[in-house]
Structure formats: structure tokens, C-alpha cells
Amino acid sequence: MYAQMIKSTGQGVKSLDEMEPQERAFQERIDAGGKIEPKDWMPDGYRKNLIRQIGQHAHSEIVGQLPEGNWITRAPTLERKAILLAKVQDEAGHGLYLYCAAETLGVTRDDLTRDLLSGKMKYSSIFNYPTLTWADMGAVGWLVDGAAIMNQVPLQRTSYGPYARAMVRICKEESFHQRQGFDIMMKMAKGTDAQRKMAQDALNRFWGPALMMFGPSDAESVHSAQSMAWKIKMNSNDELRQKFVDQTAPQAEYLGLTIPDETCKLNEETGHYDFAQPDWDEFFDVLKGNGPCNTERLEARNKAWDDGRWVREGLLAHAAKKRSAKMAAE
Amino acid sequence: MSSPESSPYKATEAAEHTETRKTEWPLWEIFIRGQHGLSHRHVGSLHAADAEMAIKNARDVYTRRNEGVSIWAVEASAIAASSPEEKGALYEPANDKVYRHPTFFDIPDEVGAM
Amino acid sequence: MSDPLFEYLCRLGDNTLVLGHRVSEWCGVAPVLEEDIALANVALDLIGQTQLWLGLAGEVEGDGRDADRLAFHRDVWDFRNVLLVEQPNGDFGQTMMRQFLFDTWHLSMLKALAGSSHEQIAAIAEKSVKEVTYHLERSTDTVIGLGDGTEESHDRMQKALDRLYPFVGEMFLSDDIDAAMVTQGIAPDPASLRKAFDAQLDAVLAEATLTKPADDFAHKGGKTGARHTEHLGHMLTQMQWLQRAYPDASW
């Protein structure tokens, strides 16, 4: 999902017979469940797609700090404030791990940052939605992190070693994120009338965008097929979306909240929940930059980057002075 | 997560990657020894202006959940790494030296633990 | 006047509450990811200390107020933090200068409190000493690094020092409450910490190539609650809003 709308460069998936020996060996290693490491030979398209995917994933973590960071100073108890802060801090950490994984492919974090700030690289559409009430902290943890986990758990087995290792660490740390969100939702859903109203309103606003996180149906997409052959995408978008709905619908029922989709019901025949597709026109609008918060999010990142320049330069200059003083002393 | 072994690549979305890198903090590889006496293990990387800052950053980034009691920071560019093409020559000769492993030897059960 | 011990514990707890809140405002927008994560750690430590100090304050008071009640349901005039910590973040330099000035005082205060005759205070102080030792190391390094860095970073740090130095003196003022604590062996006289503070400040400023303002004027009114700056009220409207708007809810 963090790889929403990644355009891969291949013209369809080559068969092993069509490949040159080097590429064939590469593909066979992936097919056998082997890992590709930074210095190994890899097709250009594989490297390029990975840089975009990992970079986009990293950007999503960093931009993803903003909607939740929006409530840290308004958290209603000291404990809630600490939990939320620790969670948003984890997101910064996850961005950091992922940028480092991308750096093994020959780009720097600053390269990727500049691409984010200029709008050349994207981040997950979900973070362009506003967080309007405290219940949104619950909904984001429960739904957005819930959807993210669906995608991230299988990525621990992705073919690129540094990416897979980053995902292992991220998944380990993320395990508390969804729970803290659900915990907030429970408290709200079982609270006062006003709290219940906030909880339902949050679910209403985040349900569709959460479904969009998996990206549009990829049944027809050659790009997806190539990414799956390379094992940098492990499941189809539709498969993950269904899994998410199957998991989430009973939880909403437990909370006594109503999913804003009348068709969302357990289908006895298939054993899965039926559900309506989210508004894909809205999704493409958000992706184009017309989401409710695209402007604010990019402005905030640009401001942090510009305001921080003198700090980064200052500390670097001091380190250089220290180094030369040390050399002079020796 | 990271690794010092990267190869340069310029073809991301942004064509204009400036060559000047003077505002970038160098990359450091971080190794942490946990509480149970195992040796330092590579846990990931981070950016820092110098070694002291790298250790402090590592404390904040990589020991948030009591992961360690000792930190090593090594500038990524200072790490020498084997190259994958040499894999055969480096590691395969050990494959047939099976006598280095204890299971190579059959010791009768009645001898007891050995 | 209410119980001096209660007042005193509010001073300790409000310092960490207000500064923890200020530092948490950086989450997501720090100059570099590593710093973002480090600042969050500092804020988390301070919030944790707040829970302990204000929790104990509530116990001492005996009116059934817990740490959250004290943090979210008191008004500006009830707050007992020093004015320094409620000063706005400003740029990153101002934030780190404020942190350094407070950490230096905080650590020496906590070290003294670790030997308090009051067992619970000693225990909280001992736990906090470990956390604040690291805060001070980090803020000291940053003040030195930026003071000695580029021309721009030097200028910004000097400006931050000039802006904040008038709030240093209040940390060392002694009043009746402090005197009561000294008599009971609970806490040191703040004035007794000044000399060591000055020596440490001078050493760090020298390394940072920064100049201490000549004027020793000190604003006061925070720790007594007599007159806070305008900044605190704005902070509280944000921090306390949910609790005040929905007083019957639990979160």
C-alpha cells in the first residue's frame, strides 16, 4: 500500500527462457526464496522499483507523523500523551530504517527527501486526510495501522535483504500501534454520548480512505505482476483489502460502531465479508495533490527541512573543526 | 538494515541530484551488544556528524526498547566488505570439511554425554 | 497558604510537565530524523517524571486529585513551574538553549534530592537523575556544536542565550517554601546550587564560543505562581482543552 501507484518500468514479466544468464540466475535465486543483497547484480528495473517503493514507504512514515502529531499537544491524559508520542516517534524510526535500506541501493536520504519535498515522489494517500477529533487517534491506529500491518507482515519475506530486515524490525515495533488505537476506540465507544459520536464519526471518515490504502484493483496490472515476480510485492491489492475487511468488520461490531457501508455483511457462501469499493475518483484526486491536506503536509515537511538547514550545517561544521583540531594535535 | 555495500545509482525520479554533499551527515553502521552476553550485532544505520553524535543517536534510535548495553558506531565508508562474486572461493571450501562438526563422529550411546 | 510540601512537589512536577509539553511540540518537524527521535525521548522522560511528581503531590494533598487531575484541571495561577520552561520553542537553537539551561539546573537539583529525607522524593529523584544526565549530555553537545558551528548557527545560539538568560535567575531564588523544605531536610536551598551552575555554564559557553549577557536581571513569578508569562495560558488552552470541554468523560 505504501507502494500505491508505483509505475514499474518493465513491459510485462519475462519468462526464464527469455532472460540472459545473469538475469536468469537472479530470478532463480528469488524463486528459490533467496535474498538479493546490495552488492549483488540486479536488473536495473528491480533497483529502480525498489528505490521508489522503499522511498515511498519511508516518506509515508515521515509524513505519517503529521496527522497524529497534530494531537500530541491535545492528548487528554499524561499516559495517552506518552503513548501517542512514543508511537509517532516509532514512525520517525521506521522512516529512518527505510531510508537506510534505500541508501544501500545507491541513493542518499537527502536525495529522497528532496524528491519528496518537490512532489516528485509520493507518499501514502491516507496521510492527506485530516485528524479532526481525539477519536481519530483511535481510528488511525485501528484502521490505518491495521491496514499497514496487512501489507508489512508479508514484506518481511521480500527478496531484497536490507528491505526485509527493515521490515522485520518495523513489524516488531508496530505490534503495539494497532492495539493502542483500538484501545482508544474502546474507551470512546463505551464512553459518553459525545465520545461515541466522535468514534462513529472517525470511523465514517477513515473507512473509505483505509480501504484505498491497498491501491486500486491490480488484477490487470503488468506492473504488479512484475513486482510479484521479483517478490517486492507479496500479495495482490484485492487480496489484502479483503483480508482487512474480514478482520475489521467484526471488530467494529464489537465496538458497537457501524461501518459506513450498508453492503458490508458476511457472505455465508464465500465466508468473506462483502463490501462496496471506496470512491476511486477521490483516491485519484488525492494522489494528484487535491486531497484535503496535501498542501499542509508538504508545507510542513518543507518548513521542517528549510528551518533545520542551519542546524544540520552547524553541527557538521563543528564536527569538521573538531576533526582538524584533533589532527593538528597529533 | 542498511549495509555499507552500496553501489551508486543516479536514476531515481529526480534527475537533478546535485553532486555537492557537503550538507549531508555521513552514514554510520551501528552494532549493539544486548544484555545476555552475546557479541555486538549489526542492528542498522543512521546519520551523524561525528562519532560521538553517532553513538548518542544510536542510543536514541536503536535502544528504545532496552535492546542493548553497549554500542559500536562505525562510519559506513570505513567498512571493508567481501564481494558476492568471491562467494564460491571464500565459503565453499568449508563445505566438505565436515569433520569440523561434532555430529561427524559416531559415539556409542553407552559412552554418555560428550 | 497550602501545605509547603504540596507546593514544592507541584513546582517539580509543573517544570517537567510544561517542558515535556514544549519539547513534544517538535515531534515530526525536527531538523533531522535522529534529532526528532531523540527529542521525543526527552519529552517522554519528562512526562514520566511529571506522572511521578504530580502523583505524589496529589497523595500529599489528600484531596483525591491524581496527576492528570492536577495537570489538566488547574488554571494558570495554580501552575508553579519556572518561567524558563514555558518560553516558546522558537527555533531549534532556542529550544536547545532552554533545554541546556534547565538540564544543568535540573540535574544538580535532582542529585541533591536523591539524598532527601523524604523517601519517595529521593526515589523519584534517583530515577530521574539517570534520565536527566543524558538530557544534559545531549543538550550540552548541541549547544557547543551549534555555538561553534557556522556563523549563522553561532549567531542564532547567541540570540537564544540573550533571549533566555533573564529566566535563569528564577531557578535559584529561595522563598518560604524552599526554607520549609530545607528545614525538614527534604530539599536543598536553590541558591546553594548557583555557584556550580555558573561554573558549568561558563565552561560550556566558552567551548561554544558564546558570551554570557552582562546584565544579571532575572524575571520571576513562575515558581510562586504570582505572574506567569502570556505563553503559559496559550499552552494550557491546548493541553487542557479536551479534559475541560468534556469533564464527564474518561479517556
Main sheet: strand order of chain A: 1-2
Q: Give the % helix of chain C.
A: 55-70%
Write down the secondary-structure element order of chain A: HHHHHHHHHEEHH
Helical element count of chain A? 11
Structural class of chain C: mainly alpha
Distance between the termini of chain A: 53 Å
Helical segment count of chain C: 11
Instruction: Give the integer mean of the pLDDT values of chain A.
Output: 93
**Low-confidence spans of chain C:** none
Q: Strand tally of chain A, please?
A: 2
Over the alpha carbons, how many angstroms does the gyration radius of chain A reach? 21 Å
Shape of chain A: globular
**Which shape of chain C, going by the Cα principal axes?**
globular
Q: In angstroms, what separates the terminal alpha carbons of chain C?
A: 33 Å
Major beta sheet summary of chain C: none
CATH architecture of chain C: Up-down Bundle
CATH superfamily of chain C: Ferritin, core subunit, four-helix bundle
Radius of gyration of chain C, in angstroms, nearest whole number: 18 Å
Structural features, described:
The complex is a heterotrimer of chains A (330), B (114) and C (251). Chain A has 330 residues and is mostly helical. Chain A has helices at residues 21-31, 44-69, 78-103, 109-117, 135-155, 161-189, 193-212, 222-229, 237-255, 280-290, 294-329, and strands at residues 265-266, 273-274. Chain A has a two-stranded antiparallel ribbon with strand order 1-2. The longest helix of chain A has 36 residues, at 294-329. Chain B has a domain at 22-82: Roll (Ubiquitin-like (UB roll)), CATH 3.10.20. Chain B is built from 2 helices and 3 strands; from the N terminus they run ββαβα. Chain B has helices spanning 51-62, 87-91, and strands spanning 27-33, 41-47, 70-75. In chain B, strands 2-1-3 form a 3-stranded antiparallel β-sheet, covered by helices on one side. The radius of gyration of chain B is 21 Å and the shape is flat. Residues 1-8 and 12-20 of chain B have low confidence and may be disordered. Chain C has a single domain (4-210, 221-245), classed as Ferritin, core subunit, four-helix bundle (Ferritin, Up-down Bundle), CATH 1.20.1260.10. Chain C is globular, with a radius of gyration of 18 Å. In chain C, 65% of the residues lie in helices and 0% in strands. With 251 residues, chain C is an all-alpha fold. Chain C has helices at 4-24, 33-61, 67-73, 83-86, 92-113, 119-147, 151-164, 176-183, 194-207, 230-239, 241-245. At the A-C interface, α2, α3 and α11 of A face α1, α2, α3, α6 and α7 of C.
